[in-house]
Write a structure and sequence with these properties.
The protein is an alpha+beta fold. The protein is built from 9 helices and 14 strands.
Length: about 300
């Protein structure tokens, strides 16, 4: 794995000869009690280089991220005399930071020029794909590519890994979003599925307030900031969505959710709407296509029901 390590070091502009490369000390979860900090990954090249790596599982606001990283900057400053060739603070984030956010982060941290390096998950995927073709490398790439890659194409997934249908509760504000953007949104932990069925709530003009009325095939899923769903919406629809999220205290627009990108033209109306009549059921749930097609009410959907 020296070649993979060499590529990683090159990515963060650290140069070491092969003799030193074999002697790099690599540790995980290194504790610095004085700073109440635990480093995800630390690499020390004898008395030449000190590299601290912090990996983020979810996107974090720049000012919150800077507050945590400032402790690591202090650790590097305390050790600056022990490493003659330099130091790096490597931050790994789900998505690449914009130039504006990166500039803001550098300004908040006040670390010496060249110390901070920010990588995205996609950078790790590229490094892994270029690395040795071993079983552990394959598993790592699968983990990155499936669980951590920003966008997952449903047709590329094994059927046994997927739910057939995810039934999502959709009020009229989010129904407008689906019709305009051809997407559905759920919390990060929601299941991947082949289809999304829309259980629309707060319906007017009929005897039933909640029904499953439409279904669509899922093309791909991805984790995106909540605020991205506002892109491309007409002003009045955008405002309704903003107001609704504010009422539900869901207006942390940088927090990530899961976006289901629907196949173009696949959103179709069911021949027979399915009346929602299960008392207290308000969470999205999973089922099979056949169960959905033969149901007349949500009470009929028994096989495969698991709250999402």
């Amino acid at each position: 794995y020296s070649k993979l390590l060499d590529r990683f070091l090159a990515k963060i502009d650290v140069k070491v000869d092969h003799g030193v490369l074999r002697k790099i000390d690599i540790e995980t979860q290194v504790e610095y009690a004085k700073h109440a900090s635990r480093i995800d990954l630390q690499l020390a090249a004898q008395d030449r280089w000190l590299i601290l790596c912090e990996s983020k599982v979810v996107s974090t606001k720049v000012d919150v991220l800077a507050k945590q990283l400032s402790k690591y900057v202090a650790i590097l400053e305390e050790n600056i005399d022990f490493y003659s060739e330099g130091q790096r603070l490597v931050v790994i984030t789900p998505r690449a930071l914009s130039k504006e956010d990166l500039s803001k982060l550098e300004g908040l941290l006040h670390c010496p020029k060249g110390v901070l390096r920010v990588l995205a998950w996609e950078d790790l995927i590229s490094l892994a794909e270029a690395g040795p073709k071993t079983e552990i490398s394959r598993l790592f790439q699968d983990y990155l590519g499936d669980s951590m890659r920003n966008k997952r194409v449903i047709d590329d997934r094994k059927i046994k890994e997927l739910e057939e249908v995810l039934v999502v509760f959709t009020n009229e504000v989010f129904w407008e979003l689906t019709q305009i953007r051809n997407i559905a949104v759920q919390r990060r932990g929601a299941s991947d599925s082949q289809y999304v069925a829309f259980l629309r709530t707060h319906l007017t003009g009929g005897p039933h307030k909640s029904m499953i009325t439409h279904i669509a095939k899922v093309e791909s899923t991805q984790f995106v900031p909540r605020g991205s769903m506002l892109d491309g919406l007409p002003k009045e629809v955008r405002q309704r969505l903003v107001d609704h999220c504010a009422e539900r205290s869901h207006n942390d627009w940088e927090k990530e959710h899961k976006q289901y990108n629907l196949n173009p033209g696949s959103l179709v109306e069911l021949a027979h709407p399915i009346v929602h009549n299960v008392q207290g059921l308000q969470l999205s749930f999973r089922t099979t296509f056949s169960e959905l097609m033969k149901a007349r009410t949500t009470k009929d959907i028994k096989k495969g029901r698991r709250l999402s």
